[in-house]
Structures are given as C-alpha cells and as structure tokens.
C-alpha cells in the first residue's frame, strides 16, 4: 500500500506543477516580473553576461517600467547582424559617393563643391578668406586626406591608384599660405599614415603595397614639414606662427597671435616624422611649443587660455574650454604619450585633466547616480574658473572619446548623451549650441566627425548596442539632410536644413571612416591583433615599438635622461584604467545611461 501512496503523491505533485506553469505568465504580468533582456549579439569571452536573474532586477533599478519605457524599447536589446551589415555597406557607399564625386568633378583641386559639381582651391582673389585659405593649399587636399580610409575599407586597388596619383601629381612648391595646424593634421598626417600602411610587413588591411615604392610619401611628408619649419623661427616663446607660405616662409604681415590647439597639436605628426627619419628637428620644435604653452598656464587654476601672443606669451584669449582653439591640445598630450611613451606627456595630460575636472565640469558628481543637472563642461576664465558664456561647440564632442582612452567611461557616457540629444533635435550638430537658451548660436554644420568618433570609441569600450543605434541615427540624418547632387554638403542652417556648397576633406577622412568602423566588427582594426591609434584628423597609425625609441642622441626639451621613457607595461596600465570596471557587466545589456537621466537631457535641449 505504501508504494501506491507514493505514486499517488507524485501524480498530484505533477498536476500541481503543470497548473502552476499554466498560471505563470499571468502571475508575471501581475507582479511586474520582467524577462531577461536579449543580448546584443556575440561578445568577447572577457565580457560575460549578467548573472542569472540579474537583468530583470537591474532593468527595474535602471528606470524601466513594465515592458520597458520608450528609451528601453528603442535602444535596448540585440542589434541584428543583418542590419549592422547593411549600415556598414551604407557607410561605405557614403564614402564612395563622396570620393568618386570628388575624383570626377574636382580633382586635382583641393575640395569638392557638391552642389555645383566642381572643384575648389585657394581663394586667390581674397587672401583674407581664412576659412578657405587656411585649409586649401592647391595640393589635392581631399585625395591626400582620404588615402587611409581607402585602406581601412579594404579597397587596395583604389588605394594603390590614389597613392600613385599623389606621387605623380602633388607638389608643395606652391605660392600658398596655409595654416600650419591644418597642413599638419590633414596632409602631413595622411602621408605618414599611408606610408606606414604601405611599408607594414603584416599588411593587415590586405595587399596595400605599391610596386617599386621608394618611400615617396615619406619624402613628400619631409618636404612639406621642412616648408612648415619657418613658422617656428623668430618667435621669442618657441610657439609657432599660425601660417606659413609654402614657397616663401612666414608672410611679412603675419599675425603674432595663435590658438592653443593650433600651436600645441603638432607633436604626433612631427614626432612620427622625426622617428621615421632619425632626425630630431621636427619633434624638437613641436615639443618645445607644447612645453612653452604649458609653462604659460595659470598659477591659480592650472588652466590655459585659447589665444596667445607668440612673442610675449601674453594670453589674448582667456577662455578655457574643450572646444575650438583648445580641443586637440589635450588630445595630443595623451596620444603623444601613447605613441612615444614620453612620461612628461602623460604627466602634463593628467594635470590638465584634473584641472579640467576641477574648473570646467558642472553638474552632478556621478553620471548615473544622484540628483542635479547632468555633467557638462563649460567655458570659463582661465584665471578665475568663472563661467564666461553659456555655449558649447561641436568640436567638444570629441572629449567623450578621449575619456574612453583614459578609462573614464562613466563620464564619457553622460557627455556623449548630451551631444546626441542635440543631434536628435536637429539631425546635426550646430557649430555652437547655447545650453541656456536651448538654441544654436552658430547654426551651420560642416559634416564634422567628432560625435561619430566618440560614438565609435564608446561602442568599442562598452559593446553596448545603444551606440549602434546612435550611429544609425547619424548615418540616416546625413543621408537625409546633407546628400547633394555630387557628394555631401555642409548644412548652412541646422534648423532650416539649407545647404552650403562645400564638402570638407575631413568628411571622407573621419566621418565616413568612423561610421564604417562602428558597423564593421570584423575589420582588421579590430581583429588583426595590431594596435592602432587615430590622429586628430582620423588618420590611422600603428602603435609601434619603433616610435617608442628615438634614433638620435639630442636631448629633447624637458627630457633629461632615458629613465623618463615609459615602458610598454606602463603604457598598458595607463591606458587601460581600472575606471573601465565602473561599468558593471549587467549594464552592457541595458541602456548605458538610466532612462530618467536620458529624459532629463532630452528636456534640457528642448526635445521634450
């Protein structure tokens, strides 16, 4: 009889479990139990998924309502690989349309006018037109600037054809007065990047070698740099003149005022050139300029201004910020250290970053916790730290990407979200946005890459599909509002969506490249095992041991002995900060920023 009781008990238990399973969906709805959010595609082994049962709990803590609020529904969950592949191809198509249009309608001139399908060079009739003449030097700028994008996209045949065109047709023996900064980052940087790609024995992007190549691009880079050197002569501070004539040197009527970024963002390109040639001259003058600017910082705040007199060292512009006039100075302090391993560069960057946090940052202390306004970096007086104005500019959108490089991912998430909210409102970033008036102060958008760059780097740091959605929004906006008859055009007004007849070269060298890499997970940049770094113009260079040792015995300014040189292990420790671990694993499956904070930012920019 006992066994019959056991059988009967098991039967009753089975029936009870079946009834419970049938009621579970209804109970889950009534108790607001959330299923685990889907995972956004395959992930590296080092990034494990959230512990069982934690995703639902974290979703509630992260501000999700039952079924998810509008932010959860739009941005969370998997990003289909088929969609990602289509967006990768769309980014490539965007580059191809712009590049082919330039080659057909504008080459060998510097830029493409996409509305009238014609080329543009320096404005010879109006030498004071610095917006054009600072950049265009009559040296096929767009072709040169686009070289490494062709390689990154794997187009070896067009890369080889473009390199041969540059070798055969480009000369810098021109009566053109250009800005030293623009010529360095757009032209010198691209020539060096392409040379490194051609001579790389590993050839990670496919066969990009050039038959009978005899270092012609390196020779062109050397020739250009020699023509820029007069800018560093006859200055009492060592800070270079802002402009130089490629044939005649510094113009006799040259101004003695230059911006911090323009004078202090030459070290990466000049340093690479010096180390490839074994000639310290170029790195020496660039490093001297950086140290001269650094020595002029405020004793009170440690901040730098944005415009300085190169003869007196007097700050003409006392605004300290992260946008135009200052941005890449900070970027190159860190990137010079990453590339060359000089500890003084890292020490300057760390001090600058602390001062930025102490005096420029406003808002609540933590990005994803607490009350108050979201973190924002404002423009202040370099001596007092007092607010100078209520606008930020689009160039500042690079800063979240720089924060990713040092591991401050949490703060990068918040600042990026603010710029993305502005993009969502206008379908572009106005050159200046007044955060107090919730309106553009300067309403044009010249196809700048900074927001795309930070989006790409944040995705690489978090693998959160939110940033793929952001990239998709940006790509669709560019196609909708900026595509023209022969390429892509500057938006003259982000509200009215009127166009301006100009396609700047950085659209091909940066904007298209970062969009493509965002959606191309299998790109050699991510999969080859090589370490790469992007210059401020988006040119790719390998983080190579040969750049971490100089071939000369000269002592560079501030370098006293070899003990000051960082070791590769120190570089890794500095670049892969433990701050990265502040983003918990389970959040990689949810929004990077709590939805209530996203809503707060959207409200601040007038979206809701």
Q: Largest sheet, order of strands side by side?
A: 5-6-7
Task: Give the biggest beta sheet.
Answer: 3 strands, antiparallel
Low-confidence stretches: 17-67, 559-563, 568-581
Output the structural class: mainly alpha
Can you count the helices? Answer: 23
Multimerization state: single chain
- CA distance, first residue to last residue: 72 Å
Proportion in helices = 40-55%
Average pLDDT metric: 87
Task: Give the overall form.
Answer: globular
Secondary structure tally: strands = 20
- The gyration radius over C-alpha positions equals 26 Å
Q: Strand-residue fraction? A: 5-15%
Organism: Chaetorhynchus papuensis (pygmy drongo)
Enzyme class: hydrolase
EC number: 3.2.1.-
Cofactor: Ca(2+)
Kindly describe this structure.
It is globular and about 60 Å long. Helix 12 runs antiparallel to helix 13 (281-295) and helix 16 packs parallel to helix 18. The chain has 608 residues and is mainly α. Mean pLDDT is 87; it is low at 17-67, 559-563 and 568-581. It has a three-stranded antiparallel beta sheet. Strands 12-13-14 form a three-stranded antiparallel beta sheet, with no helix packed on it. A two-stranded antiparallel ribbon has the order 1-2. It has 23 helices and 20 strands.
